[in-house]
Design brief:
The protein has about 160 residues and is mainly beta. Helices cover about 10% and strands about 35% of the residues. The radius of gyration is 23 Å and the shape is globular. About 10% of the residues are buried.
Length: about 160
């Protein structure tokens, strides 16, 4: 029973260290059932371990090898490169658990339909995936400049 508690405790400490709630060593689960003498204040392992959030969406490119692929909606589409490309922004999970597999573009005289497909990387087997969303971005080139055509999300059709 104590082995199971130690394993669970170690998992909690690893997960909690990122949010600053880890218990100091010696406080949790003493083998004699007693309490630690005096709790030490929590300090980060190192100052370099603390990072600031990324500025803007994370640029990604299609991998072409994802499994369990599905359509995902995007939130923003902005013409770039004088209308010869479109930059898309969407919310997604972290890699390798969620990767961009491919982007399908269908151009007509009136619309440009862009569909994003995401799935899990084959490298994500036996990997614990955290459930957070991050913004990602990718840019797709068009065959002809956008002009007055409307950009449509293929995942919402």
């Amino acid at each position: 029973m104590r082995m199971l508690q130690a394993t669970l405790l170690a998992g909690c400490v690893v997960l909690a260290m990122g949010c600053g709630t880890a218990m100091p060593t010696g406080q949790a689960g003493s083998p004699t059932g007693g309490q630690a003498a005096s709790p030490a204040p929590h300090t980060p392992a190192s100052a370099s371990a603390v990072t600031s959030p990324p500025k803007g969406p994370k640029p990604v490119k299609p991998t072409g090898d994802a499994v369990n692929v599905r359509k995902v909606p995007w939130q923003k589409a902005k013409p770039v490169a004088k209308g010869r490309a479109v930059q898309l922004v969407w919310s997604s999970g972290v890699e390798p658990c969620t990767v961009l597999d491919r982007v399908k573009v269908k151009e007509t005289g009136k619309t440009v339909t862009i569909t994003l497909y995401e799935g899990a990387s084959p490298k994500a087997r036996n990997v614990a995936c955290i459930m957070i969303a991050i913004e990602k971005t990718t840019t797709v080139k068009l065959k002809t400049p956008l002009g007055h055509r409307k950009i449509v999300d293929g995942a919402k059709r």
